[in-house]
Design a protein that fits this description.
The protein is built from no helices and eleven strands. With 124 residues, the chain is mostly beta strands. Strands 1-2-3-9-5-7 form a six-stranded antiparallel β-sheet, with no helix packed on it. Strands 4-10-11 form a three-stranded antiparallel β-sheet, with no helix packed on it. Strands 6-8 form a two-stranded antiparallel ribbon. This is Cupin domain-containing protein. It comes from Kribbella deserti.
Length: 124
């Protein structure tokens, strides 16, 4: 068993987003990646991206949208984005939004401009 303590979990930041790495191949899980996603108030991805695996978003707090034309989700809601569907995360509220995310390890992403992205550091 591998334990990832909250105080020791690696954190990665992009503008308006913090990723807290939980399970991943480098943290004891060969097949599954999970992380906590914290979105700043009003944060919205500028462009969509797709993944080659299904991704699950579970809302802990806040009001979010996960896909460009998706429904508003709140605490306790979950969304499964099927591989290949566009993802464009947005925090619709005035407070930080917190989600847990899960996906199969080894995924690859593609940005809207066609750029291929390998699994990021929080999922490696």
């Amino acid at each position: 068993m591998t334990v990832i303590r909250a105080a020791e979990a690696p954190r990665f930041e992009l503008p308006g987003i913090e990723f807290t790495g939980l399970a991943s191949p480098s943290r004891g899980s060969a097949g599954l990646c999970t992380w906590r996603l914290t979105l700043s108030p009003g944060m919205a991805n500028e462009q969509t991206h797709t993944l080659d695996r299904d991704e699950v978003f579970m809302v802990i707090s806040g009001q979010v949208r996960i896909t460009p034309d998706g429904e508003e989700l709140g605490p306790g809601d979950a969304a499964v984005v099927v591989a290949g569907d566009p993802i464009q995360v947005a925090n619709l509220g005035s407070e930080p939004a917190v989600l847990h995310v899960a996906i199969t390890a080894g995924f690859t992403g593609k940005m809207a401009d066609g750029t291929i992205v390998q699994a990021p550091a929080w999922a490696s």
